[in-house]
Amino acid sequence: MNAARIAPLRKLVLLGTGLIGGSFALALKRARLVDEVVGVGRNQANLDRAIELKVIDQACLDAAQAVQGAGLVMLGTPVGQMGRLMQQIAPHLPEDCLITDGGSTKQDVVALYREHLSAHLPRCVPGHPIAGSDLSGASAAQYGLYEGRRVVLTALPENTRESIARVRALWEACGAVVHEMSAEEHDGVFACVSHVPHLLAFSYMNAVLDRRNAERCLDFAATGFRDFTRIAGSHPEMWRDITLANREAILRDLHANRARLEELIALVEHADADALTAYIDRASKARSKWGKR
Ligand SMILES: NC(=O)C1=CN([C@@H]2O[C@H](COP(=O)(O)OP(=O)(O)OC[C@H]3O[C@@H](n4cnc5c(N)ncnc54)[C@H](O)[C@@H]3O)[C@@H](O)[C@H]2O)C=CC1
Ligand SMILES: O=C(O)C(=O)Cc1ccc(O)cc1
């Protein structure tokens, strides 16, 4: 299915009108694949801004009311909010409505679909766009966010082929490249390349703040520090929820990282130049190679 062949959605409902949902809506509007976008939120000022920026056409504080007549519901809140929203909309969802989400963790969200939307499972297609930033809210939404970026779908065995094809086609119309994997594999991979790096950035930033001369250090910090800690500026609620949702995989990787850090401390303590070179060289070569991909 390509954009030219997908029927436009009569009504897209964003449960959570922020960076991820808002950018999805903007891209679908640009592709002329949606007639009306209704944004649900818990913060009127953010919804007002979303209307002003033409991210949404209508705002609504009541999820149950908003989903009436919807063709697609996109959950774009922190993952810790998704269960209660699913519960609220379940009795009001049109029978043919597709449901998807942009949550950064997938096993927990799959469990929530099963718990709250069991009657709708054929049309609940979990997703995760691998694109975003440390910015949040409707004013961070942008048309091209998903252009050339990956989206992972962790389809359910209950999904109809048509539902998967339709969600895939909508993401492709946003310019994304869609991959499918199991929710379990997804959570292991993203603990490694997203969740733990964010937590290490938070941790390092806190360690800097613990210093008596923190301000002085920050005054002299350069681009290496900027690159390394950019993601420490990310949204606290979102990252708390991701951490709690993917605790097991994250803990495994944090422990592995502690072992690596202890190894590094020992190399520094012993002033072991050859081993230090090998330690740095391995990482440096791998990072350079990855950067060229
Ligand atoms: N920020 C990023 O780079 C990425 C985020 N994600 C995931 O996408 C989801 C959304 O993240 P963002 O768009 O970045 O967050 P955001 O903070 O920009 O937007 C979330 C919106 O949901 C609203 N909200 C929260 N609880 C709500 C509730 N109970 N009812 C209605 N609205 C509610 C918030 O007020 C906010 O406007 C999260 O699950 C996150 O893990 C996925 C990929 C990238
Ligand atoms: O800010 C960045 O560079 C990110 O890594 C954005 C991001 C955050 C969470 C995700 O689940 C996916 C992408």
Keywords:
293 residues; alpha/beta; Rossmann fold; 6-phosphogluconate dehydrogenase C-terminal fold; 2 domains; three-stranded mixed beta sheet; 52% helix; 13% strand; elongated; binds 1,4-dihydronicotinamide adenine dinucleotide; binds 3-(4-hydroxy-phenyl)pyruvic acid; prephenate dehydrogenase (NAD+) activity; 6-PGluconate_DH-like_C_sf
Description:
The protein is of the alpha/beta class and 293 residues long. The protein has two domains: 3-181, Rossmann fold (3-Layer(aba) Sandwich), CATH 3.40.50; 185-291, 6-phosphogluconate dehydrogenase C-terminal fold, CATH 1.10.3660.10. Helix content is 52%, strand content 13%. It has twelve helices and nine strands. The protein has helices at residues 19-30, 44-52, 63-66, 79-89, 107-116, 161-173, 183-209, 214-219, 223-229, 236-245, 247-269, 273-291, and strands at 9-15, 34-40, 58-60, 72-75, 98-101, 124-125, 127-129, 150-153, 177-180. Strands 3-2-1-4-5-6 form a six-stranded parallel beta sheet. A three-stranded mixed beta sheet has the order 7-8-9, with helices on one face. Helix 5 (107-116) links the parallel strand 5 and strand 6 (124-125). Helix 4 (79-89) runs parallel beside helix 5 and helix 7 packs across helix 11. The longest helix has 27 residues, at 183-209. The protein is elongated. 3-(4-hydroxy-phenyl)pyruvic acid binds at residues 104, 130, 132-134, 194, 231.
Secondary-structure map:
Elements: E1 9-15, H1 19-30, E2 34-40, H2 44-52, E3 58-60, H3 63-66, E4 72-75, H4 79-89, E5 98-101, H5 107-116, E6 124-125, E7 127-129, E8 150-153, H6 161-173, E9 177-180, H7 183-209, H8 214-219, H9 223-229, H10 236-245, H11 247-269, H12 273-291
Parallel strand pairs: 1-2, 1-4, 2-3, 4-5, 5-6, 8-9
Antiparallel strand pairs: 7-8
Helix pairs in contact: 4-5, 7-11
This protein binds 1,4-dihydronicotinamide adenine dinucleotide and 3-(4-hydroxy-phenyl)pyruvic acid.
